[in-house]
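Reading a protein record of the kind used here takes only a little practice. Think of the row as the fold of the chain written in a discrete alphabet. With that in mind, consider the following protein and its fold in token form:
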Amino acid sequence: MADRIKVEGAVFANTYKKQPKHPDFTGKIELSKSLLKALVERAKANQDLSISMAMWDRVSKDGKVYKYVSIELPEIKEEEVEVFDDEIPF
């Protein structure tokens, strides 16, 4: 896979939190068709389905503090095959 597949979103403080079991933050990330397609292909090939995630603290234009979220499907490193040349020159 030559291109990295990456999607982004935002997570805000949960203003509806009423109980300790409610989440502290809520948000939304829209998954792209290319990400879903790549995940399905990996699942069919019994490959790793983990997704890398990163978050940054940000402040919106209206002053709300939120977390900027980026998720990315890591590239699968193909194992290098060593070519063995058994011809001995004389």
Remarks:
- Residues 5-73 form one domain.
- Residues 33-44 form the longest helix (12 residues).
- The chain has one domain: 5-73.
